[in-house]
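Morning, I've got a small favour to ask if you have a moment. You're getting the sequence in one-letter code plus the fold written as tokens. Thanks so much in advance, here it is:

===
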Amino acid sequence: MYFVPVVNPDGYEFNRLNNPNGGGMWRKNRNINGDGSYGVDINRNYSYMWGYDDNGSSPIGEEETYRGNAPMSEPETRNLRQFCAEHEFQIALNYHSYSNLLLYPWGYKPDVSPDEEIMNDFARIMTQENNYVYGPASTTIYPTNGDSNDWMYGDELVKEQIFAFVPEIGGSGDGFWPTMSRIIPLCQENVFQSLTAARLLLHYAEISSLSAMAIEELNGHETFELKRLGLADGGVFTVSITPLDEYILSVGIPVVFSGMDLLEVKTDSISFNLNPDIEIGTIFRYLLTVDNGQFVSDDTISRVFGTEVEIFNEDFEGESYWVSNKWGITQAESHSPIQSITDSPFGNYQNNENSALMLDTVIDLREAKAAFLRFWAKWEIEAGYDYVQVMVRAETSTHWTALSGKYTRTGTENQAEGEPLFDGLQSTWIQEEMLLEDWLEQEIRIQFLLVSDNYLRQDGFYFDDLSISVVSPTTVTTEISKEGISNEVAVYPNPASDRVTVVYQSTEYEALKLAVYSVTGKLICIKPLEGNTGSPTFAISELTPGFYYVGLQAGNRMLSATKLVVR
């Protein structure tokens, strides 16, 4: 590894001498130009796509992004060109300030490079701890041409191709000249990023769990995906699981992979056996580990023992259970045909927004031993400033708490600082999953919140196919079907608030009962029915608003069931 402490020493020294406490804001070197102005922007003077347009750099000597009168006209850029030509660099980090970003090519045009998958994966992994927003420079911050990233990656005449990144260190409070007290913390937040860049030169593979959260049997499996990302060919990767508590009695043998190509993905599984005394709803954890022979990477996996039951789902194709004065249904984007919901259905979101979308019903988790919120989403939100949060509160409280998921970031000083949120660009649909373990044994409400500042306005946040599932001591069978036998039950109207008509029939049994269960399987009431077909009416005004199962039973056997929404 090689370190170049300062690429623009005379520009740095000019700031230090004239504004030692910050505020100098001089970004160019100090060479005298032909028109008498001072300085060339070093990061606009590299030869690849130099002077591509006057948007990404300037031809005017007095301007801050002046690119010089020719590519590589400055000693600073020529020195770095020679340095790169004399070494076989594969990855480079060109540190700048500020904005809490990690940028990669292209800068000169708003297109992705041929190696977008590699650089996006590299950036995602490197920013796992500092939560910097990452992406191509031209679309993540602004267009630049003649910059170091594009030259290192795009120019292959005097050197080999280099995967180059620009960390823009620090937030708006740090600025271009952070106080001395911030220097060490800023360095610390980039240690993992820098070490990961070095590891990506070697035999490196990323491990991801594909297992469902809930497991119904004592004999289970951890299904995982391994993706090779390290640039070094060859390598042997050993995947194993290690119990973190007493609920796992034994685990299967590790799985070994070799001969993987760059970006190749392998899927496999490792078995484990649970303690027979484990109770329904118990969360157990284990380490999922990949060892490349040089260093070990691991991830803590949480699973829950029990049968998962879906208690709420929303595909936004019919009647909506959500209320908002800004969010709305759209057909412009959807995960499942043909609709989703978004914060701004008629264009980009507005400046200074603070708009919420709330689920207009209470979710009952009083009997749940575990609970999960899942939805599919994509978004384009001004990184580091605007954001969306998924929030939950107890029905007895007015305080909302932001939920953390697989794809949330930690808020910056310009957002809900330190809280989980969504921002930046997620151009494809992903399934988010959030644990509700802190909200069990109570009734809750859920909302989505968009907050924006007075600067950039972007497309916003879309989500679709939302579901809430629970693991409870008892469950309700929602459908039983046998060849030649018809057992059916339906409820009208649905949703309802006062009375419902229950239409039922059975060709198998006659001594039938109608049972009403909570979504967690708790029996609410049971009523005898007359005959094997009918359509009686029942009052439901005493039921608490929420979701229920209405079941057709014969003895203790559930023949069929349907959901009922009480408003």
About this structure: The first strand starts at residue 91 and ends at 93.
